[in-house]
Specification:
The chain is an all-beta fold. 0% of the residues lie in helices and 51% in strands. It is built from no helices and 18 strands. It is globular. The N and C termini lie far apart (47 Å).
């Protein structure tokens, strides 16, 4: 009976995001991607092999980006493309969080590799050699100035002058696993450490 059938294939919701046009996107663990249309949620077709969506963001051009169990997906013009080594992405890793910056770039947490930044079709990889406290990156957020922040296994850092740097205001979290970050509309940055 469709009146009582669950709208989602999986009840484990792993990501939620609102698009600039007001569309609500919902990612699930082993249930794919859904969008709110009218009165309910409808499944969104994705490339073969994608079952889980861990992160969702819309870039400045309106493309939808996903981190999934199979890698990074970019959806634009009605097509969903799984991005890989041909586009400059590292060999398949575990991609977690994803954020878009005001300059049109997309920052992706690649656990064990650091942070992948895509901008205008080019890839940059930021790792411990470029200032990350750890290559185990759990979370990403943009602050009110459009500066990217990372939460890693060994604390938080922000991007400035071409590299990641620790911020003295967050020194109490150095060495802590920062599982989640959030920049709010009032300009605050919120940290969720696992170790405190």
């Amino acid at each position: 009976d469709p009146r009582v059938a669950p709208a989602l294939k999986s009840s484990a919701i792993t990501a939620v995001a609102a698009g600039a046009d007001g569309t609500l996107w919902v990612g699930t663990l082993n249930g794919g991607l859904y969008r709110r249309s009218g009165k309910g949620l409808e499944p969104v077709p994705l490339p073969a092999g994608i079952e889980s969506v861990f992160g969702i963001v819309t870039d400045t051009d309106g493309a939808l980006w996903l981190t999934t169990n199979a890698g990074v997906v970019r959806m634009a013009g009605g097509a969903a493309t799984l991005l890989g080594t041909a586009e400059g992405f590292p060999p398949r890793g575990f991609y977690r969080a994803i954020v878009a910056d005001p300059a049109g770039g997309v920052w992706i947490a690649a656990d064990g590799l650091g942070v992948v930044r895509w901008h205008q079709g080019k890839i940059e990889i930021h790792d411990e050699a470029r200032g990350l406290p750890s290559n185990a990156v759990y979370s990403l957020a943009m602050d009110a100035t459009g500066t990217p922040w990372v939460g890693t296994q060994a604390g938080a850092a922000h991007f400035r002058d071409g590299r990641f740097q620790r911020d003295p205001r967050a020194a109490a979290l150095d060495g802590d696993r920062i599982f989640s970050l959030h920049g709010d509309r009032d300009g605050n940055l919120w940290f969720a450490p696992l170790d405190k």
